[in-house]
Amino acid sequence: xxxxxQTESRAQFSPAISKTIxxxxxxxxxxxxxxxxxxxxxxxxxxxxADMAVTFFQSALQKIxxxxxxxxxxxxxxxxxxxxxxxxxxxxxxxxxxxxxLRASLTLEVRGQMADDATFLRxxxxxxxxxxxxxxQNGLNEESVWCxxxxxxxxxxxxSYVNLDKLSGGDRRAGSTF
Length: 178
Fold this sequence. Notes:
By secondary structure, this protein is an all-alpha fold. The chain has a single domain (30-168), classed as Alpha Horseshoe (Serine Threonine Protein Phosphatase 5, Tetratricopeptide repeat), CATH 1.25.40.10. Helices cover 61% and strands 0% of the residues. The chain is built from seven helices and no strands. It is flat. The chain starts with 27 loop residues before the first helix and ends in a 10-residue tail after the last helix.
């Protein structure tokens, strides 16, 4: 099998949010708590403490709704945390736990205000491509196909189809269930 195409660098873990968001006075405490969790999650991610990052981003996501302007950014940060955690678990030889987190990551979707932003969707799909590459490099071929399919369902880039064809031996129906 030939080399797979890797998209977007892992260095893109925490996309910068430069938009100022007005916070209703009544929600101030909630948003301060949310801001702390996001900052701690980003710090944990930068320090490669993926398990902590996952915990903080999951907690933050539970406190907001789909209509909040930064919802999708938090989902992306959670996906980046999962990617790092899965990679770390596979390096440690903990394949079963890595698979569990992979299944959780495959449920993530861009459903908020960024759902029509092609650049954001491409970056999000790129994280799944990278997950697929990590799975492939660790002998998890079926899981790699799952990731390619998820990348295609998020943003149908030609490289994703090339990877899927290589992994599935040309049978795009292969590995269709998570």
